[in-house]
Amino acid sequence: MTDQKSAPKGRRYEKTFEIAAPIEQVWQAITEGSELSNWFCESAESKGGVGGYQTVDWGGGMIATQDITVWNPPHQMRAEARADAQVARGLESPEGDPYATEWFLEHEGGVTKVRMVQSGFGEGPMWDGEYDGTYKGWDLFHANLTHYVENYFGKAGASVVLMASATEGASEAAARLFGPEGFCASGTIDGLKPGDPFDFTASTGDRFTGTVRIVDPGKKSLQAIVDSHDGTLTVEISDFGGCGFVWVSLLTWGRPVSEIDALRERLQGMVTALFPVPFEMPAEA
Predict the structure, then answer these.
(1) What is the pLDDT along the chain (285 residues), one digit of tens a residue?
(2) CATH architecture assigned to 157-274
(3) CATH superfamily ID and name for 12-151
(4) Is-same-fold flag (12-151; 157-274)?
(5) Using omega within 30 degrees of 0 as the cis cutoff, is the peptide bond preceding 194 cis?
(6) Whole-prediction pTM
């Protein structure tokens, strides 16, 4: 029986999935700064080992640092969020259970089995939003990680990350983003299911084709393999501070930087026209 006095406080959840790649490659992808920026964020810095850290920057002022407290390559890593940064966000962790991300890797039969544990969630509306948002968000990031390691590992990545605030709620913002003035000037994502092919052309004239991996019927979440751009497209639209928070990430691998820079400029113009209010972090993450 668990000792109630020593039981960790706060909520937690687990995510499990498999990557058809060597365990060493998966370990690099989740621990090295240059690799994290290929599937998780715009840029990252890291120092391995207990006492090391990971700092990730998603753009738009969204920066977070975690301190490494467990390091057992290539099988286990635990990283804990810094308490002062959590308090600044209004997310004070329960006593005795820091807000943390822990990875467990095992390799068998040519497949790396991944288990990720997110723990240290407190109580209250802010923590409820953090729990729900990260629970769904990690599925999108894990799909990016899997596709990158299985198909493009070692190739230079380039990303287009766009964020905006919508005065309407998430559902209305999603309908606009995937409407004729957004991604679907022609084509649609309506009715698509995981595994379905898609083909739509944005109002910028850019055509996107590939296969859906994750899709929300309300269009508020989309994660897709984009064969036309050698990458993945991830869209997450959520309610944030009474408004819709729009987050779009196109990750590409092995494409010319000039090509991606031009695409970023076109898509930024589209998103800004749809949602003129820029997103601003209320506090440092």
Answers:
(1) 333 333 445 689 999 999 999 999 999 999 999 999 999 988 899 999 999 999 999 877 788 999 999 999 999 999 999 877 676 576 776 666 889 999 999 999 999 999 999 999 988 888 888 898 899 889 989 999 999 999 999 998 888 999 998 888 888 999 999 999 999 999 999 999 999 999 999 999 999 999 999 898 888 889 999 999 999 999 989 876 567 789 899 999 999 999 999 999 999 999 999 999 877 654 444
(2) 2-Layer Sandwich (3.30)
(3) START domain (3.30.530.20)
(4) yes
(5) no
(6) 0.83
